[in-house]
Design brief:
This protein is mainly α and about 80 residues long. The protein has a domain of about 50 residues. About 80% of the residues lie in helices and about 0% in strands. It is built from four helices and no strands. The longest helix is centred in the middle third of the chain and has 26 residues. The protein is flat. It starts with a helix and ends in an 8-residue tail after the last helix. The mean pLDDT is about 85. Keywords: Membrane, Transmembrane, Transmembrane helix. This is DUF2484 family protein. InterPro entries: DUF2484.
Length: about 80
């Protein structure tokens, strides 16, 4: 019952470690973290309920803030004007 939470904690530690990698490997590390985090988030939600699942989602988004913040910035930016 503790395994999903333990792995989620290790995932957060790995996310913090990826931020210190060189730029050429940083994106690969982020992609691997996202690929591993999606099923892990489902497992945490399945075993411990939606409230802990939402907490894990918020914690994961906070630890990967730069890609999430960049995506949010793209959503808030107004669309480019078409020049005719």
């Amino acid at each position: 019952m503790v395994a999903p939470l333990l792995l989620a904690g290790l995932w957060v530690v790995a996310a913090m470690a990826v931020h210190h990698l060189p730029a050429r490997v940083h994106w690969l590390g982020l992609a691997l973290l996202i690929l591993a985090g999606i099923p892990l988030l489902g497992w945490v939600t399945y075993r411990h309920g939606p409230f802990l699942g939402m907490f894990a989602l918020i914690l994961g988004a906070a630890s990967l803030y730069w890609p999430v913040g960049r995506f949010g910035g793209r959503l808030r930016r107004p669309p480019p004007e078409h020049i005719e």
